Amino acid sequence: MDSAEQLFTFDAETLIALRTPLRAEPNTVHVWAFTLQGSEECVQLCRSWLSREERERADRFMFPHLRVRHTIAHGVLRCLLGRYSGLAPEELPFSTLPAGKPALQSGRSGAAPILFNLTHSEARGAVGVSVDKALGIDIEKLRSNIEVLPISRNYFCGPELAAIESAPSQLRDATFLRYWVAKEAVLKAEGAGLGFPLDRFCVDFLPGDAAARIKTLDAALADDWTVRMLPYEAGWLGAVAARGEDWDLKLESPYSVRPDSRG
User: Fold this and answer.
1) Any bridge partners for residue 204, and if so which?
2) What is the pLDDT of residue 139?
3) Bridge partner residues of 213 (DSSP)
């Protein structure tokens, strides 16, 4: 990924209109960012692709805008995975790993399964896709109503807490969220679930804060995860975690996709 690149957020309707087959290269994590808003037609199309269980989860939200966000997030996910796998969005064969992380079986005979992860915050979502890297992705909107220091003192390890406490007051919220999204991305990649103690591993940012390694204090968590920060615009933070260091981020755009030669 070129350091000058920025991750652009596209309308959900633009992404669900994609018809070009997509291909993920080895040692690469593709990232798609999108809004969780759309016309009634967009919402209904996304809903038509969902499983009964996904529709039921959407219907349990009390507020209509939350039902819409859930529906679009999972509809766009299905649309993109369909473009990568060669299957219709409503036909994707999902399964659930032991800790609850969703997985996708192969869409073509002999093809490797598509690996993916979904995240959303406020009215935005993002999806990471790979053919050979288990991954986790997390995004958060920067806000000032978080009890940064109490949360950090309870859940973060020493070096992380020191970095947050020493940050200038105007940068403390962003410093906290940088660690938070990195930790969440690692846990989602591992499939460890939110019950894993956040203070049992440390995020060690490399110079420039664009990437990080982890130091684990618990044998249940692998120690070879690498985190790469997503180059969002001001006000948003995001991170992707994948195993090893030999992988790249590819920031995707519906206007620059190349046809998959497999057809």
Assistant:
1) 213
2) 98
3) 204, 226
